[in-house]
Design goal:
The complex is a heterodimer. By secondary structure, chain A is mainly β. Chain A contains no helices and 10 strands. Chain B is built from no helices and 11 strands. The chains are: A mainly beta, B mainly beta.
Chain lengths: 121, 107
Amino acid sequence: QVQLQESGPGLVEPSETLSLTCSVSGGSVSSANYYWNWIRQPPGKGLEWIGKIDYSGSTDYNPSLKSRVTISLDTSTNQFSLKLNSVTAADTAVYFCARDGVSGLAYFYPWGQGTLVTVSS
Amino acid sequence: EIVLTQSPDLQSVTPKEKVTITCRASQSIGGSLHWYQQKPNQSPKLLIKYASQSFSGVPSRFSGSGSGTDFTLTINSLEAEDAATYYCHQSYAFPRTFGQGTKVEIK
């Protein structure tokens, strides 16, 4: 079955760029039926959708983060990535990658295990 | 942006009790509403898709209902392992949004 795994630095300095990668196994990021998402969860708080990318590279972002976010796809490595620039302490969170899809498949499954990113000097 | 409001924020219940969590959308979303369970230090797990469809492998005590703006997650005969935070999520429109979560505690 499809599995997702996040990777990247656990500590980022304020004003720098947070960069994470999600590796996909058991399925292809080139599938036309699925979208590849980033979701985050600040410590002790709820879930916030960051954005998604599809097989063609088309993206949608949360308007609250749109000016700072870039999601990209690498079909050669079967990965997708998140970049969030100009980070502050408010960006400290567990970052999850998750798959959803086209109508009828538009729910988040599966999820990665999540990776904690702390913004601090 | 579609706002999802869950109630209650916290529910403290005894084992075998029935639990009802509601999720209200700020506009009609048809049946594009999904429910997740999250335990501490774990990623969310899909329980119910499209308001009422049970996801594979989910115990039958979990069920969902509703359409339009009002949705309900029901846990019949709560078990100790059901202690968790539950979230609703809408896929009707972008940006995707979640409810604020409902924490279910075992008395």
